[in-house]
Amino acid sequence: MKLNNIEHVFFDLDHTLWDFEKNSELAFKEIFEKQKIAIEIDEFLKVYSPINFRYWELYRNNSVSKEALRYGRLKESFDSLKFETEDATINEIAHEYIEYLPKNNHLLEGSLELLELFKNKYRLHIITNGFEEVQHKKMKSSGIHQYFETITTSEEAGVKKPHPGIFQTAMDKSGANIDRSVMIGDNLEADIIGAHKFGLQVIYLNSENNGEQRQFPQVQKLKELLDYL
Known about the structure:
Blueprint: E1 8-11, H1 20-35, H2 41-60, H3 66-80, H4 87-100, H5 111-118, E2 123-128, H6 132-141, E3 150-153, H7 154-157, H8 164-174, E4 181-185, H9 188-198, E5 201-205, E6 218-219
Parallel strand pairs: 1-2, 1-4, 2-3, 4-5, 5-6
Helix pairs in contact: 1-4, 2-3, 3-4
Protein name: YjjG family noncanonical pyrimidine nucleotidase
Organism: Christiangramia lutea
GO molecular function: 5'-nucleotidase activity
């Protein structure tokens, strides 16, 4: 079912357009080789991924700081793997990860093709909880920065999705009419429920086909957005 009268399309970035999992794996591979960390990447990521997800939930709810997130997710992962390393090394890896991560440029399947189709049809924007100093670099290295009129980060807004304040900041920056705007993202709580409560139309990118929520329009692949837009 097509959404009518849409003029502004707001995207989340990580896990929605930018392939966070692939790019994160490449960053850790490079860092572990440099630091001589004797852990298989697949083994590390199996432990790290759910820990990282939990830390981002805590960060979104203001339960941990940015610094605590960067250190804690690594510390817990190494501890779970019974890999002993000094705090100084963990802090160094945390710093290098932020440096190396945005250098990788893999996008999710269909991202560029979709943006090419949308660029002359809609005004495009990003709303992200990612860190200010990293998100712009990610977009530039992956070649998608030029598609977006505005990029609103949680650090700029002072609040994180699903807080209405970040959506209001994005509206103010873009000059968008809420009734003519749609939010697309992969996180049901932060992107979809948050935007819906604010008053935006939403489309849930449910790549993993998790659960059976039927309240909101959803797609598994980016190309399926053409069914709605």
